[in-house]
Amino acid sequence: MPDSAVSGPIPDLRSRSAIPGTNSDPLPDTYSDPLPDVARNDFPTRLTPLSWVGMEGIAVPLRLDDPAFPGALLGHVDAAVDLPDPRVKGIHMSRLHRLVTAACEAGALTSTVLTTLLADMVDSHQDCGSTAARVTFRCRVLRARPALVTPGLSGWQDYPVTLIAERQDGVTTLSLRTEVVYSSTCPCSAALARQAVRDAFVQHFDGASLTLDTAADWLSANATLATPHSQRSVADVTVERRCDGAGQSGQTGLAINDWLDRIEAALGTPVQTAVKRADEQAFARLNGSHLMYVEDAARAVEAACRDYPDVVSAHVSVRHLESLHPHDAVATASYRAAA
Q1: Which residues are annotated as site, described as May be catalytically important (predicted)?
Q2: Which DSSP category does 36 fall into?
């Protein structure tokens, strides 16, 4: 029965008289015995240590450490600790749930809050021998994106954001993961299209007199005799940040807008929201001036991460959802700063 259907005082289940349709005989004394705790008192049938044990998808109000997104966001959290002692049957899920929920309700998830949360998760499982903890927070953020040309025209673009905090051997790491959607135009296809148009132009005007007006008229009608293939593409970027507040860049907090701007600028062709014809033409020019293979995209984004002084490591994965093929083109790049 749902909670909303319950009215009046909650019956005392220790007495049968409180339950309609039953006699007044009290329940046996054994009903008041402590509830069984299998995870604490039983032994596993197989003595195997476990790398991670926990929960995924805990719904929470999420406040990021970023002044650009001050409000609470709908978030989901994964939380886990290790279970190195093979004699322990299971961890205490409710302890992790309470710690994660309390941290999210208290305010923004600063690096200090996350470091304390991980330490508390480990401390709460001393009886399990746990020494490591990990939490992953997922949400989506909205950014207003102006049109390329048209004044006053804009729309909203949403971006997935994942915050990953992990404690291993007493050391805490903090990583930020996000995705940027962009357009990619194949350089080879562009070259083939240009050759096809050039050959048609030469064939049409071979031996004929040519003026600027006749050439312009021909191009207006025939410049798209062949067009290069382009497609929506995705850059998935994870960066490990320093956990000591403001770093060499002077940025504090997550600086999500700065990261998204860097990635979009490196690619040059982020997808647009609201557009008019002038904006669509500007986007076509951007695609023409940013021809890229999947390899080019991965290298450009990796370089943008490498140039950021607060990055400890970066992993870039790009995917071009090919319009020429039924399969995708993919590339990855990784970077770790010198110690």
Answers
A1: 186
A2: P
220 in helix, strand or coil? helix
137 touches 109 (CB < 8 A)? yes
Nearest alpha carbon to residue 134 among 79, 93, 83, 96: 79
- Sorted by sequence, the CB contacts under 8 Å of residue 33 that are 6+ apart come out as none
Rounded CA-CA distance 312/174 in Å is 10
| Dihedral sign for Cα atoms in the order 299, 304, 307, 308 | negative
Three-class DSSP category at 116: helix
pTM of the model: 0.83
Q: pLDDT tens, 46-74?
A: 889 999 999 999 999 999 999 999 999 99
Q: 120 vs 49, 96, 103, 158, 298, CA distance in Å? A: 21, 9, 11, 33, 38
SS (H, E, C) 23-34: CCCECCHHHHCC
302 sits in which H/E element: helix 294-306
CA-based R_g, the chain, Å? 29
pLDDT at 172: 93
C-alpha to C-alpha distance for 252 and 310, rounded to whole angstroms? 10
If one counts every other C-beta atom within 10 angstroms of the C-beta of residue 212, the result is 7
Q: What CATH superfamily is the domain 181-336?
A: Urate Oxidase; (3.10.270.10)
Spacing of C-alpha 299 from chain mean position: 20
Rounded Cα–Cα distance for residues 198 and 247 (Å): 53
Measured over all CA atoms, what is the biggest interatomic distance in the chain, rounded to whole angstroms? 112
CA torsion sign for 51, 56, 62, 64 is positive
